[in-house]
């Protein structure tokens, strides 16, 4: 994933993460310290849940969502590595059985998140190693980002997961990609993996193109429907819709990439489904929202005036990822109807339809005479018609 797709903050945090982030180490669970110290400031309700899970199923310590993020100073990490007689490179492995065990003194490992899991582990689990993900000497901005990413208190939307997975793929950060990927159900993981298939590359490219506009992603994306997009046989039509979304929002800011990154979720959510070029009511509503700064809040007054000048001439509903998945329901129904008419075919619907009217096609089993097509002339009668390059009028009528 190219650097220009993500915001400056995301690029900045990615650079610090690559510089200071150490993937994982095994440590004694009692060596992880929090501020304030455990067990103070713990919610008994949040403590009961992991405790019950650990009692019934034990703790799958190698699962990335059970790791605990903790910071350590560069000096203390070097001492621990020296005592264990292992190189720092050994911490980069993602293979659980190869992750080294390190010993730290009390207070050297400072937990960022997972207080309740650690306390439940102390009370319930037998002695043994816990896995920590270890960034060293990090800044406050990265610290806050790591706490947010490890937190499972608020389930992330499909759009947030998709964007994070693509971001960490682009960075080559497999550990963090996996951390977000496992937040999906197994079935949704399979559906997301479908986009990596070579035949679905056009679809993935069209979806990933929207990553440049962060406001499109927190809401609207439905990973659970990706397999239906692929199965519809209308990849080109679907990709065209995603291109349409990108073209609309990018056109509002003159295709300026830094400005595209400033389009936020509230702006997209507020304007979606308005039709300022077709409805006088929507025109007044959209004009007030844009010029007042209620939407496009990070833009200057002059920039918002330019945005409104472009928007008011748009002749249609303002599109976004949400509108796509709503409209897809209609496309899918039409595609199913056409597939029943066309019969089984591995080809996309558009290609299968086009070949029906190709006089040179030899793949139509129903066409016993080369270059002839079956034309329905009434509810119960049909006739064969030869379509040639010299007869464009008849060819056109067959499509109608």
List keywords for this structure.
400 residues; alpha/beta; five-stranded mixed sheet; two-stranded antiparallel ribbon; extended; disordered C terminus
- Mean residue pLDDT: 76
Task: Specify Rg, calculated over alpha carbons.
Answer: 28 Å
Give me the number of helical elements: 18
* Structural class determined from secondary elements: alpha/beta
* Main pleated-sheet profile: 5 strands, mixed
What does this structure look like?
It is a single chain. This protein has 400 residues and is of the alpha/beta class. Among the domains are: 3-13 and 20-150, no CATH class; 357-400, no CATH class. Helices cover 49% and strands 8% of the residues. The protein has helices spanning 8-20, 44-57, 74-84, 115-124, 140-150, 158-171, 174-181, 186-194, 201-208, 226-231, 235-252, 257-260, 265-271, 280-292, 301-311, 321-342, 349-356, 392-399, and strands at residues 21-28, 32-33, 68-71, 109-111, 129-135, 372-376, 382-386. The strands form two sheets. A five-stranded mixed beta sheet has the order 1-5-3-4-2. Strands 6-7 form a two-stranded antiparallel ribbon. Strand 6 (372-376) and strand 7 (382-386) form a beta hairpin. Helix 2 (44-57) packs across helix 4, helix 6 packs antiparallel against helix 7 (174-181) and helix 9 runs parallel beside helix 11.
């Amino acid at each position: 994933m190219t650097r220009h797709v993500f915001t400056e903050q995301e690029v900045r945090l990615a650079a610090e993460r690559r510089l200071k982030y150490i993937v994982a180490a095994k440590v004694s669970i009692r060596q992880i310290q929090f501020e304030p110290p455990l067990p103070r400031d713990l919610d008994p309700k949040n403590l009961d849940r992991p405790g019950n899970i650990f009692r019934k199923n034990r703790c799958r310590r190698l699962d990335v969502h059970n790791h605990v993020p903790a910071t350590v100073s560069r000096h203390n990490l070097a001492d621990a590595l020296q005592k264990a007689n292992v190189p720092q490179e050994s911490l980069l492995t993602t293979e659980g059985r190869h992750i080294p065990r390190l010993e730290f003194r009390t207070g050297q490992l400072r937990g960022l998140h997972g207080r309740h899991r650690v306390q439940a582990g102390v009370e319930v689990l037998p002695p043994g190693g816990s896995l920590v993900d270890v960034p060293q000497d990090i800044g406050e901005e990265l610290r806050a980002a790591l706490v947010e990413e490890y937190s499972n208190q608020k389930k992330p939307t499909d759009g947030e997961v998709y964007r994070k997975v693509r971001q960490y793929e682009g960075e080559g950060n497999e550990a963090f990609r996996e951390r977000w990927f496992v937040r999906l159900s197994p079935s949704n993981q399979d559906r997301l993996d479908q986009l990596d298939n070579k035949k679905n590359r056009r679809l993935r490219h069209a979806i990933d193109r929207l990553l440049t506009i962060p406001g499109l992603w927190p809401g609207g994306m439905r990973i659970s429907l990706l397999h239906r997009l692929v199965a519809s046989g209308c990849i080109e039509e679907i990709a065209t819709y995603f291109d349409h979304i990108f073209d609309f929002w990018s056109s509002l800011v003159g295709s300026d990439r830094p400005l595209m990154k400033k389009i936020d979720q509230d702006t997209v959510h507020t304007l979606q489904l308005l039709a300022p070029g077709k409805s006088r009511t929507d025109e007044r509503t959209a004009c007030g929202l844009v010029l007042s700064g209620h939407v496009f809040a990070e833009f200057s007054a002059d920039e918002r005036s330019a945005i409104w000048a472009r928007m008011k001439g748009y002749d249609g509903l303002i599109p976004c990822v949400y509108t796509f998945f709503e409209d897809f329901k209609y496309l899918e129904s039409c595609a199913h109807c056409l597939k029943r008419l066309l019969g089984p075919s591995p080809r996309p619907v558009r290609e299968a339809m086009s070949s029906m009217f190709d006089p040179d096609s030899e793949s139509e089993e129903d066409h016993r005479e080369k270059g002839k097509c079956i034309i329905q002339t009434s509810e119960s009668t049909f006739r064969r018609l030869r379509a040639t390059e010299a007869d464009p009028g008849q060819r056109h009528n067959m499509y109608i």
